[in-house]
Design goal:
Layout: E1 10-11, E2 14-15, H1 16-27, E3 33-37, H2 41-50, E4 57-61, H3 67-75, E5 83-87, H4 97-102, E6 111-118, E7 125-129, E8 135-140, E9 148-158, H5 159-162, H6 172-182, E10 186-189
Helix pairs in contact: 3-6
């Protein structure tokens, strides 16, 4: 087992995170990046001290793992503005980040997921979207089979939609997204 943190794993001769930062820079909508870091955070900080990223970069360290949702909540103090993009740091997919970032909702604060059509959702879970783009059902890695839309791990988040946080461990997929489906504040774009 390697002690290299996933964001620094080499892909095509460069750390994975370099590819993700390049994608964000090329999108034209991202002005700065905040990373939630825990495992081997010192290695990530040292790498970017020696290899300046294409965008201003802040790191928010977790002293203990907070889960995917807790990590996002923990970063809110370092994130500018009422709306921001959030991406999983260990996966990369194409898509129109500008369209996702500018998705607006007349229903008030919400979250928009980037969705990807796949031939078999059993590995990923499934998102069911109505004609207005609202996600009406979200299941993470459930026993669903066949083609469908899945969460790509890219989110446009209205800060208010996240609600209050008391420092507890939260899962984006099990705690935050299902609540937003119930509140009818989760949308999807492909």
């Amino acid at each position: 087992m390697s002690d290299v943190p996933k964001p620094l794993a080499p892909v095509l001769g460069r750390p994975f995170l370099d590819h993700l930062l390049a994608l964000l820079c090329e999108s034209g909508v991202v002005r700065s990046v905040t990373l939630a870091v825990h495992y081997r955070a010192d290695r990530i900080a040292a790498y970017y001290a020696d290899h300046p990223p294409p965008l201003p970069l802040r790191m928010v360290r977790e002293t203990t793992p907070l889960g995917t949702g807790g990590a996002v909540m923990n970063c809110l103090g370092a994130v500018d503005g009422p709306r921001f993009l959030c991406l999983n740091g260990d996966s990369l997919c194409g898509g129109n980040l500008a369209a996702l970032a500018t998705a607006s909702h007349s229903a008030g604060p919400a979250m928009t997921l980037g969705l990807v059509q796949v031939p078999d959702t059993s590995r990923y879970g499934r998102s069911i979207v109505d004609d207005d783009g609202r996600i009406v059902d979200f299941s993470e890695k459930a026993a669903s089979h066949g083609p469908g839309l899945v969460n790509a791990g890219i989110y446009a988040i209205d800060r208010e939609a996240l609600g209050a946080w008391n420092g507890e461990v939260l899962s984006m997929e099990q705690d935050i997204l299902p609540r937003l489906v119930r509140e009818r504040r989760l949308h999807g774009v492909t």
